[in-house]
Design a protein that fits this description.
binds adenosine-5'-diphosphate; alpha/beta; about 10% strand; about 210 residues; binds magnesium ion
């Protein structure tokens, strides 16, 4: 088994930006790795996740069962692991970086439950995906912690179409709170994402170097 390093955080926290910077850096340094971004939007195994995100089960995320939606994203990951190159690469000992993972279910689905039920949900999620489905458990999760108001500004300036999660400001704020709870229960490594991208990048590089040598 290799190493799976996950970059997690609410929408707009800078996950894709940081994975891009990290990839550029590792390539320059000649470090072999692969990366994957979830959901696998372009693949048919993400169909139920896409149906959900586009509002096909209702416009309000809170109206869609957290366990059902979690299963859609878990199934996308399962098929991706079994059929896409990163799965074999990881099994053979390679280093894989993921932009979102099971950890995104903790944030975006855990938030739908009352705060007192969230810790049990997080544990269910890890048990379901890593033990029962046999997906790789992350070697480390870097949590890009960012207040919802800042994330909102970044999402609007990104200028892309928005899904049912991104359109809902209150949901985003609750996600930021739920992400903090998940980070604590599940032992994620926090990075302050309100700083400039270069500063966040330097911190992630240092953490990755400690992990992979
Ligand atoms: N540290 C940062 N400071 C300011 N803006 C940022 C920072 N990191 C990313 N951004 C910008 O914020 C937006 C969201 O970043 P992105 O990487 O797409 O986040 P995510 O993948 O977590 O949704 C993008 O327009 C990006 O250029
Ligand atoms: Mg992104």
């Amino acid at each position: 088994m290799g190493k799976l390093i996950v970059i997690e955080g609410i929408d707009g926290s800078g996950k894709s930006t940081q994975l891009r910077l990290l990839s550029e850096r590792l390539k320059r340094d000649g470090v072999p790795f692969q990366s994957v971004r979830f959901p696998r939007y372009s693949r048919e195994h993400s169909a139920l996740a896409r149906l959900y995100l586009s509002g096909g089960l209702g416009d309000s995320p809170g109206g869609v069962n957290a366990y059902a939606a979690s299963s859609f994203f878990a199934a996308d990951r399962f098929v991706s692991y079994k059929t896409e190159p990163w799965g074999t690469y990881y099994d053979g000992g390679g280093i894989v970086f993921a932009d979102r993972y099971t950890t995104s279910n903790a944030i975006h689905q855990g938030v739908k439950l009352p705060a007192r039920e969230r810790a049990d949900f997080f544990r269910w999620l890890y048990d379901y995906e890593f033990r029962l489905l046999g997906l790789p458990a992350p070697s480390a999760v870097f949590h890009l912690a960012l207040p919802a108001a800042l994330a909102r500004e970044r999402i609007s300036s990104r200028g892309e179409g928005m899904d049912i999660h991104e359109r809902d400001g209150a949901y985003l704020a609750e996600c930021a709170e739920c992400a903090g709870a998940a980070a604590e229960v599940l032992g994620w490594t926090a990075a302050d994402a309100s700083r400039g991208e270069a500063d966040v990048h330097a911190e992630l590089c240092e953490a990755v170097r400690r992990l992979v040598g």
